[in-house]
Amino acid sequence: MNDTRERLLDAAERLYAERGVDAVSLREIVQEAGVRNATAVQYHFGDRAGMVRAVFARHAPEVEARRHALLDACEADGGDDPEGAVRALAAALVRPLTARLADPSGRAFLQIWADVLNRPDPIVPVAVLDDPSDSLCRWRALVEPLLEEDAARLHRRFTAVRYAAIEVARRARSGPRTDDRLFTSYLIDVVAAILGAPVSPETRRLAAERDAARG
Q1: Of 22, 87, 151, 209, which one has the greatest count of Cβ atoms within 10 A?
Q2: Where do the HTH tetR-type domain residues begin and end (predicted)?
Q3: DSSP state of 34
Q4: How far is C-alpha 105 from the geometric centre of its chain's CA atoms?
Q5: Measured between alpha carbons, how far apart are the two ends of the chain, in Å?
Q6: Which pTM does this prediction carry?
Q7: pLDDT digits (tens, 9 = 90+) for 168-209
Q8: Could you tell me which of 71, 78, 11 has the C-alpha nearest to residue 41?
Q9: What residues contact residue 202 under an 8 Å CB cut-off, 6+ apart?
Q10: Pair 192, 90: CB distance under 8 Å
Q11: How many CA atoms lie within 13 A of 120 on its CB side?
Q12: Rounded Cα–Cα distance for residues 122 and 115 (Å)
């Protein structure tokens, strides 16, 4: 039974990474896995959202452990260098993802994660952002005091999360590399720049106009 479940997960990872979650039917996953029971996906995962959640659950322990360790270091540092703190937190967002680039299953996961995040209505609600035990929720809480108030209000943190996910997925699609250190360091630089970028007077004005229109 567990073997069937793992074969289905392997097949889902491959197909979702190659074609995108929306383009793959549950029937195709069953066929790709070589499973005879046509209802095997429903039995083990319920529906497509359950399948995607199970794919994420495969990789969550390693990603979570790495990010919590980096966040522990950020909190222990307690320095007076805001710029350094922003880059350290950018690293805590990026490094747990780029660490998965060396593994074929990890590269598939990174592409699926970006697919799910980069859409108006995620297949799997990003409830982790409100779960205090989740590393992304903890990351958001640590980043917030370092942002301009307007930057936080305009969802700067989610912009950084989504950008990092898309760039790492792009790297994953291009195949395994012998060295991802430069890519990782530069992506951390860009994410830090996103977090630290000032909000322009024009953007402040337009945001105020939008808020006034909403009442």
Answers
A1: 151
A2: 2-63
A3: T
A4: 15
A5: 55
A6: 0.92
A7: 999 999 988 999 999 999 999 999 999 999 999 999 999 999
A8: 11
A9: none
A10: yes
A11: 0
A12: 9
| Distance separating alpha carbons of residues 2 and 148, to the nearest angstrom | 49
Half-sphere exposure of 110 (CA within 13 A, CB side): 30
Measured CA distances, 93 to 99, 165, 201 (Å):
11, 9, 28
- Count of CB atoms situated within 10 Å of the CB of 90: 24
∠ at Cα 108 (55, 7), nearest 5°? 55
* Residue 30 near residue 37 (C-beta atoms within 8 A): yes
Structure token digits, residue 68? 């919590």
The DSSP symbol for 175 reads -
The pair of three-digit structure tokens given for residue 204, joined into one six-digit string: 């402040």
Instruction: Check residue 124 and give its pLDDT.
Output: 57
In this predicted model, what pLDDT tens digit does every residue of 96-113 receive, in sequence order?
Answer: 999 999 999 999 999 999
127 band by pLDDT with thresholds 50, 70 and 90: low
Assigned token pair, 103: 């593994």
Q: Which two tokens stand for residue 185?
A: 């360091």
